[in-house]
Amino acid sequence: MACCSTFTIVFFRILLYFCMYSFQNSTNMTEDLIKVSDSYPHNGKFLQSYIKMNGVNRAELARKLNVSNTTVYQYAESSSLQLSVLWKASLALNHNFVAELGELLPIEHSSKREAELETKIKTLELELEIKTSIYEKLIGKLNQELSEYKNTVVK
User: Fold this and answer.
1) What pLDDT was estimated at residue 75?
2) How far is it, in rounded angstroms, from Cα 7 to Cα 53?
């Protein structure tokens, strides 16, 4: 949920910047888009936030990453971390910082795994619909037989 709200905030900030900039300088729209795309999230804050929220021991993280405590501190302060650092931190903390970063991109994307799960969900929904239909027919037949039985017992 927090990622969605962060994405919304970033999206609206970019949209606001784009609108304001476009009205002020209605020169070339391509230039406007390039300037908007120059801003990017502060990567170190992903790490810093996770460390705070989960009570991660920085010294332990430093050992897992095979770096000094100072380096972990610098990672958290850095506005732009290399992908290799995010990758290693993701593995060390069992948290996908790369995906978290990707969620902030204003580009639609679904992973192979998400596509497979969507297909599985649709298959299960269809299966549920078929089984529900069969169940309803059986209940209908049972109710009809019960009604006929009651009629024969009453007579």
Assistant:
1) 92
2) 19
Q: Which CATH architecture has domain 41-109?
A: Orthogonal Bundle (1.10)
Residue 74 CB neighbour total at 10 angstroms: 13
**Burial environment of residue 113 by CB neighbours within 10 A (0 to 12, 13 to 18, 19 or more):** exposed
Which residues lie closer than 8 Å to 33 by C-beta, 6 or more apart? Answer: 18
Residue 150 has pLDDT above 90, yes or no: no
How many C-beta neighbours within 10 Å does residue 86 have? Answer: 21
The token pair that represents 118 in the structure block: 């969507």
Residues 6+ apart with CB under 8 A from 25: 32
Read off the pLDDT of residues 20-45 as tens digits, 9 standing for 90 and up.
544 444 444 334 333 444 577 888 88
- Angle at which helices 69-77 and 58-65 cross, to 10°: 100
* Contact present, 99 and 131 (Cβ < 8 Å): no
**Residue 85 CB: number of other CB atoms within 10 A?**
19
